[in-house]
Amino acid sequence: MSDTPTLLIAGCGDVGSRLAQQMLQAGWTVHGLRRQVAALPVGVLPVAGDLEQPACPTAWPQGPLDYLVYCVAASRHDEAGYRAAYVEGLRHVLGWLAERGQTPRRLLFVSSSGVYGQRDGEWVDETSPAEAESFSGSVMLEAERIAMDSGIPATLVRLTGIYGPGREWLLKQVRMGYRVVSEPPLYANRIHVDDCAGLLAHLLKAEAGGAALQDCYIGVDDAPAPLHEVVGWLRERMGVTEWAEESTVRRSGSKRCSNARARALGWAPRYPSYREGYAAILGEP
């Protein structure tokens, strides 16, 4: 590998673009694959392409690729949409690499904590059974297996609930009087979008620096919290006094995810809990 590592981000959207900016600042060469390349950050080498189509993009990078980050978001939220984005899309990218004789040093596959089926508030880490019951979690597990069997050294990065600028669903719900039960507590796991990119960047830099990455890391802040606590805190900060007539919670499960493995590698979230993250979104000091 040269002094200037080369990275391809397949699915260079919100998280991918934030990652790209961090790696550009670190002096890396960054290629970004997405349909609309005009939205890529300045400095990212554009690769216009559709991961759901079998034809290799014409602007596919020439020469060696040191790292691949597969970081897509399904455009359709049904089983077919998930399969097209995560399973078929990954197969396409791996095929394009093989066609050109490119073997990255490592693949980071951005997955989801939805692969865990735990529902009773238990703590979950990378060694916990991943036995998702939902179609989304099951499809993601299938894609994870493809990544791990790709012949490229691979690391899964299972992100929890992403929030941040442009990802303000909970704030909108609170404004409408979002009501959730307090018993039993429904634990929610979060990570700010900037911390998603920061974790991926940390893993890439660590590997490039000679660290031995493990096969999986959970991306989550330091403090999984009961949803009713988060809602109460937001109501106070936002000055919301009205409640919806009925409980509007749509969560069916509850678990607490641990970031101990990522922290052991030296990563720390910029926003350690929902308080710091949502305060930043709300413009509080």
From TrEMBL:
Which residue numbers delimit the NAD-dependent epimerase/dehydratase domain? 8-167
Matching InterPro entries: Epimerase_deHydtase (IPR001509), NAD(P)-bd_dom_sf (IPR036291), NAD(P)-dependent_oxidoreduct (IPR051783)
Please report the name of this protein according to its UniProt entry. Answer: SDR family oxidoreductase
Q: Which organism is it from?
A: Metapseudomonas resinovorans (Pseudomonas resinovorans)
